[in-house]
Amino acid sequence: MHSHLFPARRRASRGFTLIELLVVIAIIAVLIALLLPAVQSAREAARRSQCVNNMKQLGLALHNYHQTINVFPPGGVNGINAAGQSCQGTTHGPNCYEWGAWSAQAMLLPYMEQTPVYNSINFNVLGRGNGFGESMNTTATTSAITSFLCPSSTPPPRTQAWRWYNQFYPGNTYFVSAGSTIMWLGWPVNVPNGIFSIGGPAYGIRDIQDGSSNTIAMGEWRGGDFNDAKRSIQDIVGIQWASAGWPSVPNRNMDGPFSNMPAGAAYLVPALQQCSQAWLSGSATSYGTNGQRSWNGRFWHVGNYGHAYGNILVPPNSQYPYCQFWDTNSDFDSAGVNGLSSFHPGGANVCFADGSVRFLKNSVAWNTLWGLGSMAQGETISSDQY
């Protein structure tokens, strides 16, 4: 009897139906949608941690400088004028221009492992506003310093349209604080109530009567978007100083008895509202498509509001744009409101005069903020207030 081998019957192969495939894709999409916020949150946490580390480095540099010089650096230091006279201190010779002052950040470079950059600077010429001085210092002033850049903030664009002596802007997202004040110069009759001022004396820990752990030395802000055609909350808007509403101020330096807070509290919000209206209407005393300047924090080497110098006037990430009080279509050499902001959810980092770094919430009360900004006004502030 012969056996016949029959080939095994093949099982019919079955693939995914279109509906099954769509279900799988939908499940994957839902999983990605659930995971993406967590990934973004983790990335922001890492960036915020790096931002804190940057500020700790700056706080350490401040104290290393203080240990060597016995004071903190001024907010801005001029070189010498055409007659060879010093432009530092409270007595100024002719042609001393505070709008070209070298920033405190420039003074800190040797204390943060940036000695080669520091050594390449000629401090005898203006850091800004003098073509000869600007051109000879571009090697230093266009150097991007990682410790001056919060990774959550976008640095200036590296495009041909935004160049400085054919070099890219370096960017800066950390400012030294003038205090709770709209003033900036440290040598007129009235002076800023914070640790740093332009052209004035240098202060040390001995001068901080409110306590170094209760006085803000540095803060962070959002870098500008460098697009004057786009309205961003970190834009800088200019209004006429004479119409800003502050009494007893002689010029755009706003050297007056009500320029420090809380003495000028009644005039601050109306001035900010005026800036907001000018910003929204495009009628600001400035240039750019919408009457604004969108390059906050483009330089770290210039001691002016909007470059490397700021103040503690409004809570972080407020509803108001930055504001400058001008008499002409000028640069950042004037009184103004350039303060705390960040791309971190809920607030911004600050470095206190004792070197500690803390996160200041958007909800901090204005009076508490002003107390933290001033160094010798006698406010009593508890850490649970911010």
Q: Which outline best applies?
A: globular
SSE-based structural type: alpha+beta
Q: Helix coverage percent of residues? A: 25-40%
What's the main sheet like?
Answer: 5 strands, mixed
Beta fraction of the residues?
5-15%
Rounded to the nearest angstrom, the radius of gyration is 26 Å
- Strand-and-helix sequence, N→C? HEEHHHHEEEEEHEEEEEH
End-to-end C-alpha gap: 99 Å
Low-pLDDT regions: none
The main sheet orders its strands as: 8-5-6-11-12
Please tell me the overall pLDDT: 87
Q: How many helices?
A: 7
Q: Give the strand tally.
A: 12
Description of the structure:
The chain is an alpha+beta fold. It is built from 7 helices and 12 strands. The protein has helices spanning 18-69, 104-108, 115-119, 131-136, 138-141, 265-281, 366-373; strands at residues 76-77, 102-103, 163-164, 167-168, 174-177, 216-220, 236-240, 309-310, 322-326, 336-337, 347-352, 357-361. The strands form 4 sheets. Strands 8-5-6-11-12 form a 5-stranded mixed beta sheet. Strands 7-9-10 form a 3-stranded mixed beta sheet, covered by helices on one side. The chain has a two-stranded antiparallel sheet with strand order 1-2. The longest helix has 52 residues, at 18-69. The protein starts with 17 loop residues before the first helix and ends in a 13-residue tail after the last helix.
